[in-house]
Structure formats: C-alpha cells, structure tokens
Amino acid sequence: MNGIVVVGHGPAAHRLCASLHRLGHRSPVTVLGAEPHAAYNRALLPSVLDGTLPAQALELAAPPGNARVRRAAVVTGVDRARREVRTADGTVYGYEVLVLATGARPRSPGFDSPAVRRLGTLADAEPPPEGPVVIVGGGLRGAGAAAALGRAGHEVTLVHSGPRLAHRDLDGPASAVLARTLEEAGVALELDRRVAGAEHGKAVLDDGRLLAAATVLACAGSVPETAVARAAGLEVRRGIVVDDRLRTGDPRIHAIGDCAEHAGAAGDSLTSAWEQADALAGILTGSDSPYRPTRRVLRPGIRGLELTVVGPVEEPAPDGEPAPGDDPAPGEETVSLSDPGGGRHARLRLRDGRIRSGIVAGFPQAVAAVGRLYARDLPVPSDRLALLIGSAGGYAASGALPDTAVVCQCNNVTRKALRQAWDGGARALPALAAATRATTGCGTCVPAVGRLCAELARSTEGGNRP
Ligand SMILES: Cc1cc2nc3c(=O)[nH]c(=O)nc-3n(C[C@H](O)[C@H](O)[C@H](O)COP(=O)(O)OP(=O)(O)OC[C@H]3O[C@@H](n4cnc5c(N)ncnc54)[C@H](O)[C@@H]3O)c2cc1C
Predict the structure, then answer these.
(1) Which of 8, 381, 400, 459 has the most neighbouring CB atoms within 10 Å?
(2) How many other CB atoms are there within 10 angstroms of residue 423's CB atom?
(3) Of 223, 230, 224, nearest to 77 (Cα)?
(4) Cβ(306) – ligand 1 distance below 6 Å
(5) Cβ-Cβ contacts under 8 Å for 133 (sequence gap 6 or more)
(6) How far is the CA of 274 from the centre of ligand 1 (A)?
C-alpha cells in the first residue's frame, strides 16, 4: 500500500515522522533524504566547524514508529498523474500523500573558487578549517560562524557589504553589541566591503586589498530548495506556495520547513519547521485546525552573546530621539536600556502593555521571558527593568544557576533536568543532549551545558552535590 512519502530528511521531516507516530498514524511513511547521514540539526553546524561538537552529536535519534528512511536518495522527479516519485538511481516510489521537506541551500557568494566553502551541510563543516578564514556575509549566520571560529582560536576576518552587521535583523545599537562580541572573539571586521574573488590563498576585496584566506566561508543567506516542486509544475514564489493546510496547488502534495512559503513568508528557522511539521501531522491524521504560525521569535546561535529578536525590526532615529512623526501613539511606549560599551542593549516597543517588537542583546536573564511574553502576547510586568536584568539578580552575580533556570531555551530544559540526566548516567555533552534535547535547538546553550558538565564532573569527583 502506498502511504506518505517525504522528500528530504532534515529537522522538518524528522519532526513530522515523530508527530505522526505520536498522533497514532500507523500506515507506511517513506523518507527519501539526499544526504548520506541520519537527520541532523543544521543550526549547530558552526559548532562542528569550530570543533566544539563531533558531527554525531548533531544527529537526531531515529524517529519512533514505522518510518522507512532511505539515505543518499536524491529525488529527481515527481509524476503527479501516476502519484510517483523517482530517485536518481531510478527507483520509483508510489504515494498517497507527498510531503516536500527539501529545506534550503546556501546562496552563492557571487564568485566561485576551490577555496570557497558554503556552510549548508555536515560535509561543508568538516574537517575544521586550517589557516586564516575569511567569512563572506555579516548576517546572523555569518556572525555566528565568525564568533564560533574566532573563539576557537582561528584567524578570522568577516566581510560584510553593509555599514553594520545583521542590518536586516538588528537595530544600530544591537549591531554595535554584536560587533563588539566578534571583536572580543578576535574577529577582524571589514564593513561596507565585498569579496570579489579568491585565489592562491587570498581573498580579493572590492577595494583591491588581499586578505590571507586558506578558507573562504560563504554565509550569504539561503534560498529555498524548490527544484523538485518547480519541475512538478507546482507554484513557487520564493518558496513552494502552501495554504493554511500546508497544501500546494495539488491537494495530495504538501510542503513544510525552509522550502515552504506560507502567507508570503518562507521558513527560515527550526521553530517554524517544527511547528509546520506538528501542524501537518495533525492535518494528515484528521484535524480540521488550519496551520497558524506563532509569532516569530529569532534566537540566533552566537557564541558569547545571548540575543533574541521578536517582531519586526524598528530603527530608532540615529540620535536615539524619536524621529519626527514617530511620536508614540496612545497606548504605545518604548522601553530601552542601552550599554553597547558593556555589551548590552535592549529595546522593547509595547502597545497596551504587550510587546510589539523587541531586541534584547546581552541580557541573558531576559531572553526567555521576552520570547515567551511576545510569542503568547502576554502583558509585560510593570517593573520593566526587572524583566530585562532578571529578578534573580543574585544568581546572575554569582554565576551559579539555580535548579529552575532554563538552560536550553529552545527545548525548555532546566538545570535540574540536566542534573537529573547526569545522575542517570549522561556524563558528557552528547549524552546530555540525547537525554534532554538541550543544545539540539539553536545551539546557543552549548557553552553553558559544557560548563555545567564540567561543574557536575568536579562535584561528582569531589563527592559534593552542586
Ligand atoms: C549554518 C546554519 C546556521 C543556522 N542557525 C540557525 C539558528 O541559530 N536557529 C534556527 O532556528 N535556525 C538556524 N538555521 C536554520 C535551520 O537549520 C533550518 O531552518 C532547518 O534546518 C530547516 O529544516 P528543514 O528540514 O526544513 O530543511 P533542511 O534542514 O535544509 O533539510 C532538508 C533536507 O532535504 C534534502 N533534500 C533537498 N532536496 C532533496 C531531494 N531532491 N531529494 C532528497 N532530499 C532532498 C536536503 O539534502 C536536506 O538534507 C541555520 C542553518 C544553517 C545552514
């Protein structure tokens, strides 16, 4: 019997299989993934690139249930009339329902050279680079890779075509905090510059200067992978266009994750991939509920900086004063606390006491709360300052986390859960990740979990309970 066939085996496909099983789906599911590995967490690639994590630590445990996974199976075509997909080796799979979860691929930096690596797959992240690295693209992913490599002791230059880093996602002061974080990690910044080419161990800048570059790492954004959908005659704009049931124009074909475009927005994060996978599993098991994306909370993995961005980015006037015509409307207010020199900046725009947009950089205690208040559209506490600096100032000062502290925000894993997993035998970072799912989201908490590991190891040796 033909069942569900899923094209692509990334986090979206993996989550779909797990959710289908959880919801009682027991018919065949076949997953065709182009890569030779098990599904893995792509957001953690910078941690493999800098040698912090082994490649296996990124792998997601096989989904429960009866999904048959075919690795190194590249789908080359879909015959919608016969309801069949074909792989590069000529194998044909019939389907009742087809799910496209083909993700996104890194954008070209605009030139090609054997020295260029694009950070899109595990194959791109290994082996770690040797010698000087030039990173092309100072968006959040380029900055994340630069921070990771810089902290690992590599000689890194980050070249960005704009006057400030991550200008699409951050306001000016937050960009300044990010720049400071990178400089502290030893990263040299070349702003308002482009890399024109790379040859003989050098990257050539558009002003003619040469930078030593054994590796040129392209982090120039990503493009939804839509080739299979296009060839099948499905509507593609930026991504594969889907409706509120995550359905393409062909009712038997759905799309989820980074390849899909819903309500004009293409996916670009683990959270939206997971959300869509959960929603589609519900739809395929009989739910009438349409897919409704939750509000977007961006939590990029940048070593050394706790950062979150919620809602649209709104620039303040350059002098920090409200711009003409920018008087707050009744019910609106802006809360800001800026200390770029100290590596901190926060700005929240509120309407009727709820967060409309915000950027929080360098306030670790606020990241989870701001994300949660925004995602659920809850009122912020009357003491705005306590929200930013954290009411449990004591532990912030001492550096020791209380048991209730959420260490992994993506998977809501507390220090207590990690300690219990440690007591249960998970005595290293990969084992803690497998037991609790900590570090398997955006990866920002990898250093914190590493520190906790070291702390627990010391106290276990010393016979103390931390
Ligand atoms: C360097 C980097 C850093 C990132 N950092 C973050 C972060 O900090 N936070 C965050 O939320 N997100 C981050 N992301 C984005 C996150 O990884 C993606 O949103 C997530 O992986 C999307 O999952 P997906 O399953 O839709 O797609 P993907 O993970 O792209 O998986 C799609 C899979 O489909 C396969 N495929 C494609 N075409 C075919 C075909 N024709 N046949 C068979 N298989 C096919 C691909 O090979 C791939 O294995 C990052 C991504 C990168 C590359």
Answers:
(1) 8
(2) 12
(3) 230
(4) no
(5) 149, 154, 155, 156, 157, 213, 214, 215, 216, 217
(6) 12
What is the 242 CA–ligand 1 centroid distance (Å)?
Answer: 18
All structural domains of the chain, each given as residue ranges with its CATH number in brackets, are: 4-105+222-284 (3.50.50.60), 116-218 (3.50.50.60), 306-391 (3.30.390.30), 406-462 (1.10.10.1100)
**Atom of ligand 1 lying closest to residue 270 CA:** 11
HSE-CB at 359 with a 13 A cutoff on CA atoms is 26
Instruction: Please tell me the distance from the alpha carbon of residue 417 to that of residue 425, in angstroms, as a whole number.
Output: 13
C-alpha span between 182 and 171 (Å, rounded) = 17
Mutate to test the pocket of ligand 1, among 42, 135, 246, 442 (most ligand atoms within 8 A of CB): 42
Task: Encode pLDDT of 34-72 as tens digits.
Answer: 999 999 999 889 889 988 888 988 888 887 788 999 999
pLDDT in tens, 76-87: 999 999 999 999
Which amino acid, one-letter code, is at 314?
A: E
What's the 314 CA to ligand 1 centre distance in angstroms? 28
